[in-house]
Amino acid sequence: MSAVIQAHELSCFYGIVLGLNNVSFSIGSGITGVVGPNGAGKSTLIKLITGQIKPSSGTLTVFGGTPWNNPDVLGRIGYCPEHEHVHQELKPVDWLRSLAVLSGLSWSESRRRSEEVLQAVGLQKQHWGKRIGTYSKGMRQRVKLAQALLHRPGLVILDEPMNGLDPMGRQEIGDILRRLQREGVHILISSHILDELEALCGRFLMLNWGRALASGSQTAIRSEMTQWPEQVVIRTDRPEAVVACLGAAGHLRGYFLETDRAIVWLKRPELFYNEWTTLLSTCDAQIFELQSKSTSLTSVFEKITA
Amino acid sequence: MTPPPLPPLLPASAGISNAPAGNPGPTSLGAVILAIGSLEVTALLRPGAWLKFGLFALGLIVVTKLSVPYGNEKMFSQWMVDVVALKIVPLLCLVVGGGVLRNQIRSFTIEYLWTRPARKAHLAIAAWCSTVSIVFAQAIVGTVVVHATGSFLGVENIWDGLPMLLITEFVVILAFSALSLALGVYSGKYMVFGLLYGLIVESGVSRIPTNLNLLSVTHHAEVLLSYRTEDIGTLGLMPLVQSLVGTVGIAAVGLAVAAALFSFKQYSVGTEKES
């Protein structure tokens, strides 16, 4: 895998406030999700990658070059910020034309390309004549994504792109991102909506307190965490009987009961998975479904940040 | 039976390629000026901006009428030169030039500009060009409005000095816009620093009868404005050239400082905290 973004002992401090602390990672092609709670260092990392700030120490390269004050690197990056601030008084084509010219497109080409990207992000033509200030949050999100695509970047960075979008909108943005990936664009997404990231991303970078806790595919990250107990959801007509049964067999580390399911935390998952069919058949309850939750991105993230 | 073809993923975007374009290199200074200029001009064309501009012109008419007695040429000249050209125009430069990048830093919109393949120094130069254009357009309208009001008030030979006045206003705007831009990229408190600078340098140093007053834009402007009423034969060409070069030199220094600060200073976007 050739690295698009490479960080080596990267640190960034705002005075005495920690942004990133001695982080090393490598991000390759495809769609990569950056995951972490508030204050984890996601925004600092994105600002470093987009050349808005420079590292306090360590190195960061994007497409082999350092982004700070480097137009050669920035010309290959498209950035869609998290915030809602846009030039409210402008119409989308006017705004995008200026940004396209700023990205190196000619004035005549800028109009055609602005209309192309607005089409590509699914903003209907009937809205193009309105000022951006009158747009809904979802429409603004599309315009913000459109401006990131103007100069056909090789790497698109999106900070919370699903914010403010309804499920249909999220689906459409997801489709656009997958289409970009097929066209050879690398994508880095930071998001709190982990389910959406799980569906989109092939690889993840997990941050907490300014440190990189894990990186790689979800399965690879999960496989490194065998020392943690599994969380299993068992859908049944008698959750309390199932919990009593598992408790008697010595598997329970903790549990939570709902009317139609038991959520259990296992002491030794490998033993449970060896005997779960036999064990559950002896319980005085009907078992409808058994699902391991520990491999979901949310569970992996919860464990890593615990 | 052949199954029906699958619908395209995004019908609206069929045929549009977003495949990476490779490395385009830095955007040229001319393109950066065009981009920033078109952004600023398009923003200015909104109805709210026209209303403010109209109110500004109306205010000038009213204050001119109140300040200048009927047919009083000396009072008109004092009002036009001392107040409008040397106080109001520099204040406009401070408000527009100081805020042109600072307001974008405060409102996050700067992130759309400085993450593009344009040099930050070019962005600062483009911001200065747009400030000069906006303030000079306002100054032309304001000056013509004041002159028309003066003419209505019976002041004679009022239009004779207008060309030199406009030339002086232009070079004054070049210098004050650059200084204001430098203050704006240096600190969010650019208005305070600008007013202090005005008091100390423009109102203080410019009055000192030594070569120190060459540091003051106001001193150079007063020299240039003396050519409104006297011809070059009387005053000589040297003071004119010296003041033009002095003002443009101050503009160049201010712009260089602004471009360097904006290139190498790190900003905390959306707040006034900087490192």
Characterization of this structure:
The complex is a heterodimer of chains A (306) and B (275). In chain A, the strands form three sheets. A six-stranded mixed β-sheet of chain A has the order 5-6-7-3-8-9, sandwiched between helices. In chain A, strands 11-12-10-13 form a four-stranded antiparallel β-sheet, covered by helices on one side. Chain A has a three-stranded antiparallel β-sheet with strand order 2-1-4, with helices on one face. In chain A, strand 6, helix 6 (167-182) and strand 7 form a beta-alpha-beta unit. The model of chain A has no long low-confidence stretch (mean pLDDT 87). The relative contact order of chain A is 0.14. Helices cover 36% and strands 27% of the residues of chain A. Chain A is elongated and about 75 Å long. In chain A, helix 3 crosses helix 4 (107-120) and helix 4 (107-120) packs across helix 5. Chain A has 306 residues and is an alpha/beta fold. Chain B has 275 residues and is mainly α. Chain B is 68% helix and 0% strand. Chain B contains ten helices and no strands. The termini of chain B are far apart. Mean pLDDT of chain B is 87; it is low at 6-13. At the A-B interface, helix 2, helix 3, helix 4 and helix 6 of A face helix 1 and helix 4 of B.
Notable features of this structure?
heterodimer; A: 306 residues; 4-stranded antiparallel beta sheet; B: 275 residues; mainly alpha; 10 helices
